[in-house]
Known about the structure:
By secondary structure, the chain is α/β, with parallel strands linked by helices. Helix content is 42%, strand content 14%. It has 9 helices and 8 strands. The protein has a single domain, classed as Rossmann fold (3-Layer(aba) Sandwich), CATH 3.40.50. Helix 1 (15-30) packs across helix 9 (188-205). It has an 8-stranded mixed sheet, with helices on both faces.
Amino acid sequence: MRIIAVTSQKGGSGKTTITGHLAVEAARQTGEPVALVDTDPQGSLSDWWNEREAEQPAFARATLATLDADLATLRDDGFRTVFIDTPPAITGAIQVVVQKSDLVIIPTRPSPHDLRAAGKTVELVERAGKPLVFVVNGATARARLTGEAAIALSQHGTVAPTILHNRQDFAASMIDGRTVMEANPKGRSAEEVAKLWLYVNERIKRLPVKAHFKSLPTTRAGFGNRPQLPASVVAQPAGL
Length: 240
């Protein structure tokens, strides 16, 4: 099981949107069980998930205090990929999540404020010794600042070759628990998400194989408000 944290200390960077979209695309392309974990007190990801009709991705009600055990439960239940959304600040919560992750995605909008804010997130990830990928998000097509942002970020880490552009369909699809792949599957935004997941998946495949989490005696990770398969059953992807 691979754990992907999506984090940035800058609010409005698009963490929740990217987390939800990548999780759905991962389930679509791999046909494997995918789970979401929301550690942001605002609960935007869980609000979005509760609006969804599709069964995939599943939503795990994990807590920071029991994160090791909750992730072990997800692994034992057959989940192959877990995406974790984080709060918009450098907090103890982010540190805990980063430590448990295999890969950290840092969404960054192409603006001076976002570029400056990325530094502290990078420092945290580097201290934890985790690989990171910047995702340029909310970009304006053919804007010079977008290219300049990618160049600036590349001095601090790997930048995903796919840029997510600022389009209304991203926000519109999140209102009712969908993604751009479901709302407008032939659109440019859906194409960008698909390409981004392919890149992230290739990065995941190149990561070293790690030891399994040791299961700890604890309450099993709970799932969201919508009816779900029991935790002991591997979830099957819904037809999207």
